[in-house]
Amino acid sequence: MSADSISVNRIREVLLVTVPPEPDDETITMLQEKVLAAMERHNARGLVLDISTVDTLDSFFARTIIETGQMVKLMGGRTVIAGMRTGVAITATQLGLVFGHLLTALDVDRALDLLGES
Amino acid sequence: MPESTAETHVDINSESDIVKVRKTVRDLAAAQGFGPTDVTRIVTAASELARNVFRFAGTGFLQMKQYEEGPRRCLELLFEDQGPGIADIEQAMEPGFTSGGGLGLGLPGAKRLMDELELDSVPGRGTRVTVRKWMNSSQKKGLAA
To answer: What domain range includes position A94?
Structure first.
């Protein structure tokens, strides 16, 4: 899975990023850089991270998502994690992950609603 | 004694081998009959332990065993490296303790996600972590809760 496979799309003032199903550490790190650059370039006010195809959310991946949310917040934006699968939610909780101030939504539609777009 | 054993070996030499470990573990756990949530638990634990091998030792391997004991099926994952080892095992098992700049959830998290975890480490010699997941054990736990 290469970093090229990450697409950052803009819907009005919100960035939508679809996370690939089985990203390696390098892809996850690239994702963060790509998202932050796009935030600045598009003057976006929100970020939706669609993780609906992700089966494995380990602590490295989670830490990068949490950090990205904090960085986006510093840039004046809000981050919504969308589409976390049942098994991933159970596993993340048992693993001890704390997502802090990140907003969550069942799917991308609701995430966009949450950010005031529909 | 185990009645039947199938073994699979995966070398861990690069970051991309962490993805390979996840894929191999996922395929075998699913084929062995674990449900989707247990598969996710097992793969996530494997990802944490494979990353520890790569981050702290650079190289190592995963040895997977599948066996049956009476009516119970077991998936056993052994991660071994010849890295720096762990000086204080109790500290390493504490959630939030990290020497690698991470969240400090790797070992304690893997322990919570699996049924058993054994940690064997000699400073300067290496580390061996064995985790096991028993099929139906989560259902039994659910009934007891």
So the answer is: 3-114
